[in-house]
Amino acid sequence: MITLETYNTNLLFKSTQRFKYGKYRISRNSLKLQCFKKNPFCVCCGIEGTIVKLQKHCKADGAPFFNLYAKRDFDGALVLMTKDHIVPASFGGENVLSNLQTMCEWCNNGKGQNILTTEAVEEIKNNITLFNSLPKSSAQQKIFDTLKSKCFSHPVIKDLYELQFSYY
Predict the structure, then answer these.
(1) Environment class of residue 55 by beta-carbon count within 10 Å: exposed (0-12), middle (13-18) or buried (19+)?
(2) How many helices (H) and strands (E) does the chain have?
(3) Ranges in the chain, pLDDT < 50
(4) N or C of the chain: less Cβ packing under 10 Å?
(5) CA 118, 96, 12 angle in degrees (round to 5)?
(6) CA-to-CA distance for 31 and 78, rounded, in angstroms?
(7) SS3 138
(8) What residue numbers bound the domain in which 12 lies?
(9) How far apart are alpha carbons 53 and 48 in whole angstroms?
(10) Which pLDDT tens digit goes with each residue over 46-80?
């Protein structure tokens, strides 16, 4: 990945006009950026995306694109922020803003194509201080393992889980 320029989120999120870089015009109104503008925090661990990078995959590749990054306090490691489908596309979830949420790549990788549960979010948030004190690879693995064990693999199971709480 090649970084062309780095920006503050405020500068990028204030305008919805196309951004010009060389011969390219880059939309600031993509679903991904709308999702980040709506909420720059990972819905799971709470890390905040504050750095926007204009990037390309390689020099010969097509138009550049914007990526949002968060910086870990512990070691300064950058964590890519992603748009995540609340109801995964594989379960019929639509690619619309109301079905998107911001997640860091570590939490998103742990969630996979599962459905995030309140229990999973609580466990991550309760242990985030511990996770942030670990080296990057260990923190990623702990988040991944926690989410894999606490997320639903099918929306029907999630509906049944939530249904039990609606009677209390």
Answers:
(1) middle
(2) 6, 7
(3) 164, 167-168
(4) C
(5) 95
(6) 22
(7) helix
(8) 2-165
(9) 15
(10) 999 999 998 888 766 678 888 999 998 778 889 99
3-state SS assignment for residue 67: strand
The token pair at 78 is 């950058």
Please give the Cα distance from 135 to 77 (Å, whole number): 10
DSSP conformation letters of 33-46 = HHHHHH--B-TTT-
Three-state SS string across 55-99, please? EECCCCCCCCEEEEEEECCCCCCEEEEEEEECCCHHHCCCCCHHH
For residue 158, report the phi and psi dihedrals to the nearest 5 degrees.
-60, -45
Number of domains making up the chain: 1
Inter-residue contact 83 to 35 (CB < 8 Å): yes
Output the six-digit token pair for 22: 């060389």
Which DSSP letter does residue 95 get? S
The number of residues in the chain equals 168
DSSP state of 18: P
Which tokens is 31 given? 């679903």
Q: Are 115 and 152 in contact (CB under 8 A)?
A: yes
